[in-house]
Amino acid sequence: MAQSPYLAQQHSPQSSPSQSLRAASPPATVETIVSYLVASKRSLGSIHLVHRATNILTEARASIESTTALLAKTTYLRRSLASQLKILRGVQYELDSAAQTIQQEFQTIIQELDDTGARLLQCIDFLKETSIEEAFKSTTEAEGVTGKVTLHDFVDDNGVEQIKQAMRAAIDNVQNDEHEINQSIQTLEEDLQSINDVLVNRTNDSGAESDLKQPTISATLSILEHHAKEMAQGLESLVKHFDLCVTAIKHTEGCGEAVVQTMNTNAEDLPEAVGMGMEELQAPAQPMNEEERLEMLQVLENDANEVDEVVMELQDRHAEMEAQLERIVPWREQQENVYADVTTAFRLMDKISGRLSGYVAETARHASRWNEEKAKIEDGIGGMEELCSYYTNFLHAYDGLIVEVDRRRAAKKAMERVVVQAHSQLDQLYESDRQLRVKFRENMGEFLPGDIWHGVNDLPPRFEINRVDEGFEASVPDIPRRTVEEAARRFSKGR
Q: What is the pTM assigned to this prediction?
């Protein structure tokens, strides 16, 4: 804004006092000069804005300095906290990896258990589907077994049920332990996440609510100092203008009485603690010639036109300083909240550190219990494999039994054929010998005395071929040829 020579604390270099007098307007009236004085005195009420500007500058400087120090401390603590949090995350990763490894081993061994169990059930189904041949029924009926008889009737399932129960108990134990360790790891995750929530979410929330950005410290202070300096200079210009008004009153006839009357009439319109300055008016005036007086009145008139503009500028600068302070104060409060959150996070970190050994110990116990239950499950798998092997060998042996029965039946028939052939040959030898003996007696008997050999007239000896173990071996079952062939094919392939 353009200021008068007195408000700007300088005179125009292009005009001399004589030129100013010639260019000046008619001298101001008493009423005008008094009105200038009243307006000038009223403008001095802006001094409270200058005082407030000083306070704002002091408060802003203190806030920025303390907040900057707090921000540096917060930054250091956050870095330290982030470093410790990284270590805890590493521990959590190791615990989670250990739990995942156990879970993968558990899934693998469960798959092996399921496969072995499926094979065992398949073997049992084969036993149930394999009926005993009718040729063997006489033996089973003699033992009290009636109806449809299968190979399954000759095995005991109690071992299978015992293994299943043991496996179910081991699996339940592992799953319970797995649930507990997962809960432990989840608790650690929640603890660490609570720190993240304090460090990240609250800061983001507060930033979203206030939409604050960290002010540029040097720029903010520079702006405030500039406004404060300009306001002080503006107030100084208003004071000088008031002094000029007092000087004009002293050198204008009749202004003293007008000032008193105006003071009595307009005292209520003046700001609080602002009087008319009668002590200044009563002081002796400095000598001044007419040319100087006219120049002074011209300057006074020019300055009077600038008073309202100076006051408005003071108000604008004050408002701008208040706005700057309003941005600094929430920023300071936000940084204080962030620092409080960091200290809260450190307290949470202390609690987590105290519980960390418990998390590690729980994982170690889980690994130990898993090794115990794993050994039980492996023993169960081994037992089921033994049963599978036993049942498979049973099926294989039954096929071998059918093949063996057929072989024995064939051997028996071969032996019987030999016996029949031997019986026929013996009969032929006997008849031939008998006929030759008869013929010998007929030809030579009358010439031989009877007492030479009493056996000369005996018949040939008779021989029989009989089973020496009769009654000690059951009869060989007669199994259909097709059944024997199928059993032989399975037996040769090992089922």
A: 0.59
**CA 410 → CA 44, 78, 227, 447, 468, distances in Å?**
142, 95, 128, 55, 20
Q: Which residues pair with 131 in a beta bridge?
A: 150
State how far the Cα of 354 lies from the Cα of 352, in Å rounded to an integer: 5
User: Does 132 or 292 have the greater pLDDT score?
Assistant: 132
What is the C-alpha to C-alpha distance for residues 245 and 251, in angstroms, rounded to an integer? 10
CA torsion sign, 129 to 132 to 134 to 137?
negative
pLDDT digits (tens, 9 = 90+) for 429-446: 999 999 999 999 888 888
Q: Which residues pair with 193 in a beta bridge?
A: none
N residues, the chain: 495
Degrees, nearest 5: CA angle 29-33-39: 140
332 vs 149: CA distance, rounded Å: 92
CA 67 and chain centroid, separation: 34
Residue 278 to residue 369: CA distance in whole angstroms: 101
Listed in sequence order, the residues at least 6 apart from 319 whose beta carbon sits closer than 8 Å to its beta carbon are none
Tell me how far apart the alpha carbons of residues 190 and 353 are, in angstroms, rounded to a whole number.
14
Cα separation, 21 vs 248, whole angstroms: 16
**CA neighbor of 302 nearest in space, from 256, 241, 343, 391:** 241
